[in-house]
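Table S2 (continued). Query chain:
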Amino acid sequence: MHCKLFILMMFLTAPVLLTANPVSSTVQHGFVGAEVCGMCHHTDKQGKQLEIWKNSKHAQAYKTLQTSAADKIAKEKGFSTPAAKTPECLKCHASGYNAEASLLGAKFKIEDGVQCESCHGGGADYKTLNVMKDKIASVKAGLELHTNMKTSCTKCHNSQSPTYKPFNVELMWAKIKHTVPAAGN
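Corresponding output:
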């Protein structure tokens, strides 16, 4: 009797289990690096997003960890590793710092600092043009979009940083804003 009940339950729940969305928040998307993103996001049509990033402090974020001043701060915070090797520093100064090597694309360079994928998620699964042309498909493939800049920016720009200085999110966002221009502009 119990065996028949178990088989019946399995028969009834199997379709639900088999059709459940296999993608979850634990999916790790690979990192391709700013150079790959920039293949499309460098044009006027795309708002010269790569150029905006290259000229921002985000592009230099990793380099700041390679200074003696950064190493001094890391030591003062009790870390035994140089700042450029300290996860607590890297989490806000580099994309993909804690990703498995198998998730880092051939053109990915940690030295590129806070690059596209720091905010928009690993791009290996949404980098292709056919996916990027479909916003829903892009998000399903790992693209992270942000509507609340304060929430997004303060993941790193907060009082946990030893060099934090309060700032106006709207003013700072205006310096790095990189939206795609509306068609016809």
